[in-house]
Design brief:
Radius of gyration: 32 Å
CATH topology of the domain at 458-595: Leucine-rich repeat, LRR (right-handed beta-alpha superhelix)
Shape: globular
Number of helices: 9
Protein name: LRR receptor-like serine/threonine-protein kinase GSO1
Helix content: 10-25%
Largest sheet: 22 strands, mixed
Domain Leucine-rich repeat-containing N-terminal plant-type: 37-73
Membrane topology: Single-pass membrane protein
Number of strands: 39
Bound molecules: 2-acetamido-2-deoxy-beta-D-glucopyranose
Signal peptide: 1-29
Structural class: alpha/beta
CATH superfamily of the domain at 458-595: Ribonuclease Inhibitor
Transmembrane segments: 601-622
Length: 674
């Protein structure tokens, strides 16, 4: 009994305590009461930004500390310490001048975020004569429309973080920021700044204590100045997307706290310094899109991310380069690397891209240990190898591109285990044998390119399992048999290439059910019988290639939309009707040469017309952007990956979508170009 009484008392006390806490919290909130002066300033600030009553900064409460976007702190007295006015569509026409001069009286402010608005002009007096904000620690004016030179920031002696990125600032950076002796993080990225990389050293004196320095996507020239290496506390140095020349200095190792070093898309030459391996904190190193030469030293001991793609690196890949246990991402595409692919591979690898080199030898079987691997690109090398069955153990693989090598042998049935596979590109090799039935398990497959090999066998009716498939390229192989009627189950199909095989039989009318089909190539086979009428009902179709078969009967071209390019040459019994005229196809059939450039122009023209007709935006993108994508690829991938680095969890989905988009169109151009 006594025990229950105790229990009851404990519960009551707990209840009282909870109630009391609630009370304390409430009274604390209402005690966040500003003095009269601060209330006035805040009211005037809100009025200066939004002279009209409606706006999306909720200032309806009489106590500004309860407005959203306002942070107050309660010390001896309550004061406003933070304003977060990001993304409020504040136009430059608002009384922004008034706003900034009133703001200078808010002398308790520590953090001001004014990013993502449309401000083009801030009065110079704000930067040089705003003594009230001498306690400001963080100022974010990024993603506005600021123009002109970087102003003299002499007002803000306490500033630790300054972000001016994504504006249109011009000119050089010299001493304008030299009053900011406490600056730890500076972002001037994505402007039009010129001159040499600022060193923030005035009269031999370091004027800031940098930890993060972002100068990316400007027009800085010259070399990487060695003065930068005096900022021993730098954790992030981002110089990508400028026009820097010269070498990556060996003294870079002085930056012994560096975590991220991005030098991509410049004109850097010389070797990759081996001293990078001495920076034990360095996790992310990217210098893709430069003109670096020589061998790659063993630098990855502490790395998680390495991108040296699109340089001019040569020699062999060091045997331990891909082995370091933290390594998640490696891209060495587009160099002149030779020798074999190292066999010692980090089991954390998520992406491995070695495309476009001179690699020879085999695909290592150790690849089967990479259970996290999502992207594997080994295309455009000289690999002379079978496809190891161990690949089937990489159960997270989404993209597998082994095209344009000298691979031989049969496709291992274990490929069927790759349930997440979306892109399978094996074209232009010497692979043979039948496609294993296990392949039909690949429910996520989006692109399948097996063209230009020696594959054989028939297309099974179960091909209709591939509900996601948008692209099938089987041309230039030894496939035979007929196209199964169930082909109409490929609901998402955009492009189907079956040319130059030994297919026969009639063309199934069910092909006409493929509502999204844009390109159908049946050329150079042994198809016979009539061309089914249903093909003329496909209103997305832009190219129908029937040439060099044994087709017969009448084909009335006037039934097709004008945007469709129908190629019929080489069917001696096919009578082609063009409107009212009638002809045998060999002489008058619409003929497209095998010249791939002409072909592309034709396709592009057809695409433009179908786009104008409002049909296919996505295909338009794929055809017209491919030229830009091929060279921009390194930079694009880089940006996406940095995105994921900043906010891995939150951005993962978006990044994957972007990446998927990128891969599709990038790979799309590769496969249609070959
Ligand atoms: C706020 O504006 C009013 C009138 O516009 C003015 O009288 C007052 O001095 C201003 N107060 C502050 C603190 O700026
Ligand atoms: C604005 O704030 C008030 C008080 O804090 C609140 O009651 C109201 O719902 C808010 N309005 C909007 C649109 O968020
Ligand atoms: C900015 O605001 C708009 C609507 O006001 C919203 O759609 C958009 O997502 C916001 N952007 C960011 C980056 O928060
Ligand atoms: C600086 O601002 C004060 C008032 O805020 C003003 O009196 C003074 O003239 C200004 N000085 C300059 C150089 O603009
Ligand atoms: C910036 O302002 C400070 C103090 O007013 C002055 O000493 C310095 O020369 C100015 N720098 C530039 C580049 O105008
Ligand atoms: C680096 O940080 C340490 C500790 O905070 C500090 O003592 C040192 O002065 C800093 N170095 C530089 C170059 O700012
Ligand atoms: C790393 O640092 C050590 C000690 O300073 C030095 O002996 C070694 O040569 C450095 N390694 C490289 C690759 O620079
Ligand atoms: C790379 O540098 C070499 C000389 O080292 C030069 O011949 C070549 O044109 C440069 N290539 C590019 C793309 O800048
Ligand atoms: C690659 O480097 C070699 C020298 O090692 C140079 O001759 C060649 O021009 C460079 N190629 C490119 C594309 O820059
Ligand atoms: C593979 O690399 C790791 C990490 O560098 C190393 O510990 C291991 O001994 C290497 N294994 C072989 C077989 O070389
Ligand atoms: C692949 O997985 C099988 C079991 O599914 C296992 O027996 C084999 O050792 C694995 N191979 C590698 C290289 O990990
Ligand atoms: C392709 O493989 C066949 C045997 O399957 C062989 O005869 C032929 O030489 C190979 N072709 C090339 C280019 O390696």
């Amino acid at each position: 009994m006594e025990r229950y009484a105790n229990l009851f008392i404990s519960f009551s006390l707990l209840f009282l305590f909870l109630n009391y806490s609630l009370f304390v919290c409430k009274s604390m909130a209402s005690s966040l009461q500003l003095n009269h002066d601060q209330i006035n300033i805040m009211a005037n600030l809100s009025k200066s930004l939004f002279p009209n009553s409606y706006h999306n900064w909720n200032t309806s409460d009489p106590n500004p500390c309860l407005w959203d976007r306002v942070t107050c702190s309660a010390g001896t007295s309550t004061v406003v310490t933070g304003l977060s006015l990001s993304n409020l569509s504040i136009p430059t026409a608002a009384n922004v001048g008034d706003f900034f001069s009133i703001l200078c009286r808010l002398d308790t402010l520590q953090n001001l975020d004014f990013s993502q608005n449309y401000i083009a002009m801030i009065p110079d007096s704000f930067f040089s004569n705003c003594t009230g904000l001498s306690g400001l620690k963080s100022l974010d004016l990024s993603s506005n429309e600021l123009t002109g030179p970087v102003r003299n920031f002499s007002s803000f002696a306490s500033l630790e973080t300054l972000d001016l990125s994504y504006n249109s600032l011009q000119g050089t950076v010299e001493t304008q920021l030299s009053s900011l002796s406490k600056l730890k993080s500076l972002n001037l990225g994505s402007n039009f700044l010129i001159g040499t990389i600022p060193t923030f050293i005035v009269d031999g004196r370091r004027v800031a204590v940098f930890e993060e320095l972002v100068l990316s996507h400007n027009q800085f020239t010259g070399t990487i100045p060695s003065e930068i290496f005096e900022y021993e506390n730098l954790t992030m140095l981002d110089l990508r997307g400028n026009s820097l020349s010269g070498t990556i200095p060996e003294e870079i190792e002085k930056l012994s706290n560096l975590k991220t070093l991005t030098l991509c898309t410049n004109q850097l030459t010389g070797k990759v310094p081996a001293t990078l391996s001495n920076i034990t904190t360095l996790f992310h190193f990217a210098a893709d899109g430069n003109n670096l030469t020589g061998n790659i030293p063993s630098i990855t001991k502490f790395f998680g991310f390495l991108d040296l793609s699109y340089n001019n690196l040569s020699g062999e890949i060091p045997s331990d380069l891909l082995a370091s246990p933290n390594l998640e991402y490696v891209d060495l595409s587009g160099n002149r690397l030779g020798g074999a692919i190292p066999t010692n591979l980090s089991t954390r690898l998520h992406r491995l891209r070695l495309s476009g080199n001179l690699l020879s030898g085999v695909i290592p079987t150790s690849i089967g240990k990479l259970s996290k691997l999502a992207h594997l690109k080994l295309d455009h090398n000289n690999l002379y190898s079978e496809i190891p069955s161990q690949l089937g153990n990489c159960s997270n693989l989404e993209l597998l591109d082994l095209s344009s090598n000298a691979l031989y042998g049969e496709l291992p049935k274990e490929i069927g285990n790759l349930q997440k596979l979306e892109v399978l590109a094996l074209q232009t090799n010497n692979l043979s044998g039948e496609i294993p039935v296990e392949m039909h398990e690949l429910q996520s497959l989006y692109r399948l390119n097996l063209s230009s090999n020696s594959f054989t066998g028939e297309i099974l009716p179960t091909i209709s399992n591939f509900q996601q498939l948008a692209f099938i390229a089987l041309q230039h192989n030894k496939f035979y048999g007929s196209i199964p009627y169930s082909v109409n189950g490929l609901e998402s199909l955009n492009e189907l290439y079956l040319g130059s095989n030994y297919f026969n039989g009639s063309i199934p009318s069910s092909l006409g059910d493929l509502r999204y089909l844009e390109i159908l190539d049946l050329s150079c086979n042994n198809f016979s019988g009539n061309v089914p009428d249903s093909l003329s009902f496909m209103n997305r179709l832009i190219e129908l290639v029937l040439s060099y078969n044994n087709l017969s009967g009448h084909l009335d071209l006037s039934r097709f939309l004008p945007s469709v390019n129908v190629v019929t040459i080489g069917n001696k019994d096919l009578i082609v009707l063009k409107g009212s005229t009638e002809s045998n196809s060999p002489e008058n059939g619409v003929f497209v040469t095998n010249d791939s450039s002409k072909r592309k122009i034709l396709v592009a023209l057809a695409v433009v017309s179908s786009f104008v007709a409002g049909f296919s935006v996505s295909f338009f993108m794929s055809s017209l952007t491919w030229k830009f994508l091929i060279r921009k690829q390194a930079a694009d991938v880089q940006d996406e990956d940095n995105l994921s680095d900043l906010n891995i969890r939150n951005n993962l989905q978006m990044v994957q979508r972007l990446r998927r988009f990128h891969e599709r169109y990038y790979l799309g151009q590769l496969t249609t170009a070959t």
